[in-house]
Design a protein that fits this description.
CATH superfamily: LigB-like
Shape: globular
Number of strands: 10
Radius of gyration: 17 Å
Oligomer: single chain
CATH class: Alpha Beta
Distance between the termini: 10 Å
Number of domains: 1
Structural class: alpha/beta
Strand content: 15-25%
Number of helices: 10
Order of helices and strands: EHHEEEEHHEHEHEHHHHEE
Largest sheet: 8 strands, mixed
Helix content: 25-40%
CATH topology: Protocatechuate 4,5-dioxygenase, Chain B
CATH architecture: 3-Layer(aba) Sandwich
């Protein structure tokens, strides 16, 4: 099997020690879960990590794949001028299979060496010990949920055709409206969405997730559902067990860490 790892992770910049500082204590569960996930990822020995981010180039009608020989990630916009990641990229896997993917899903290939925090935070926690790993950043579109599942299925074909060991990480936070002090105005739909999504993930109910009420999704002010849908498309027809490592929301934003244990 070429697919060796799958996970959903949050990407709050406060997870970076130079940014979070004392606030790290408030997201201790998330930090511990990310550290556990890092050990799982290390044990899977990936050659390539696909990281699906909601904060890169988002195009309405196409999925975007970022191919570069090298990437950099900094957190200067969040006040951290000392943390800088130099990351190797993979330009071969997707480029060789571009036509195969395009026949089924609309994609656009870009080359932007500067990474957003949706890629940078997961890499910081999960992949720094993997000295020879390369990454492929992927950004979702504004197409519907089923289109994201189909794109994930197409990525799966590429992954299963390669001899490389591939990990897929869906980066995204849950609802942003869980408290009165949250980034988005408080809305009870936030808690409803987070609880429902976790319930469906535990069941492995992919079609249930595709069929989530769109008003509920919009009212939840989330940024991780479409990343998760692409990952779930990759996992289509693969036996897995969903392990919810943690969920917490001390700042009014839901942080979910989930490991999809492949069988």
């Amino acid at each position: 099997m070429s697919l060796v790892f799958g996970a959903i992770v949050p990407h709050p910049p406060i997870l970076i020690p130079q940014i979070g500082k004392d606030n790290l204590d408030k997201i201790a569960k998330t930090k511990e879960s990310m550290e556990q996930l890092e050990r799982e990822l290390y044990a899977s020995k990936p050659d390539i990590i696909m990281i699906i981010s909601p904060h890169g180039m988002i195009d309405q009608d196409v999925f975007t794949v970022n191919l570069s020989n090298y990437f950099t990630a900094t957190f200067e916009e969040f006040g951290d001028f000392s943390t800088k990641l130099e990351i190797k990229g993979d330009t071969v896997l997707i480029a060789m299979e571009k036509e195969k993917i395009e026949n089924k899903s609309p994609i656009n290939i870009i080359s932007d060496p500067k990474l957003d925090h949706g890629v940078g935070v997961p890499y910081f926690y999960l992949a720094q010990q993997l000295k020879n790993v390369s990454i492929i950043p992927i950004y979702f579109s504004l197409l519907d949920s089923q289109a994201h599942i189909e794109f994930g299925k197409n990525l799966k074909e590429v992954i299963m055709d390669t001899e490389k060991r591939v990990a897929v990480i869906a980066s995204g936070d849950m609802s942003h409206c869980l408290t009165e002090t949250a980034p988005a105005p408080f809305n009870p739909a936030g808690k409803q969405f987070d609880e429902k999504l976790i319930e469906l993930l535990k069941k492995g109910d992919i079609q249930g997730i595709v069929g989530l009420d769109q008003k509920l999704v919009e009212d939840a002010a989330e940024c991780g559902l479409k990343s998760a849908l692409i990952l779930l498309g990759v996992l289509h027809n693969i036996n897995f067990t969903t392990e919810i490592l943690s969920y917490e929301a001390p700042f009014g934003v839901g942080y979910l860490v989930a490991n999809f244990k492949l069988e």
